[in-house]
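Hi Y.,

Following your request, here is the sequence exactly as I used it, all 79 residues.
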Amino acid sequence: MTRDEVADQIHGIIRETFDLDPDFPIDDDTTAMDIDGWDSLAHTTLLLMIERQMSTKIDRDIEFDDVGALIDNVHASVG
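Below is the corresponding structure, written out as tokens. Let me know if you'd prefer a different format.
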């Protein structure tokens, strides 16, 4: 799976998790501060959704500064 494919899936999961419009802009530099409702509980929910939908495991000890870091981590595990 390419990084772009992983990014597309994660962008979709983020939109689904936070009930965002399909046109809501998400890129590597997007942070939790950019999305209403992205708090610690929602972050955990997001990680669980990614794990389930992408059949991977995400290390909960890693802090992701932005969506790009999350994509890179998932891409490394599903590559």
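Residues 3-17 form the longest helix (15 residues).

Thanks again,
Q.
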